[in-house]
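thread: overnight batch results

M.L. [08:02]
morning all. the overnight job finished for the chain we discussed friday. pasting input first so we're all looking at the same thing
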Amino acid sequence: MNGMQFFIELLDKLAWPLVFIFSVVTLQKPLSALIPLAKKFKFKDFEVEFGQDLKAVSKKAEGAFPELEIDKKSVLIASVDNLPSSSILQAWSEVDKAAENLISTKLPNVILDSNTRYKDIEETLVTEQIIDTKKAKLFSELRVLRNKVAHAKGYEVGKVEAVQYIELCFVLVDHLNQLKQA
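M.L. [08:03]
and the structure it wrote out:
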């Protein structure tokens, strides 16, 4: 065997492994992006289906752990980047629910179904002395800002203002919930 035949034999034996290694190195990033998307893996007699395993584990975990409570305040603050006006309206709805629950607990005969519902809630809270003047002023200012966001054309709210509004709403919600329990 001369040098040329040796080189050809060596090249013949190493060609496919080199092509394989080159392919793996070249396609490493695209393959690593596809691996998490795989639902099924099969190699000879070994087979794994990821989706079914995850469903089975999820069913087992449902009864083992308490339900995860979603913190509405955190969700609203996180959504401010994309939807500041919507976040403000959602925060106000939490204030509305808390105020309505407080009124229905303290004064079960009061009916709040009217066109001026938010104004009626505010007046009821103040006239029945359920909340003090400072809290009533905060309620009123939050209501006015909510109405501007909901109804004024071209009224835009910045992200910082929306976060401040949400914080104030949840401070008021906490206070109203404490009054309900007292």
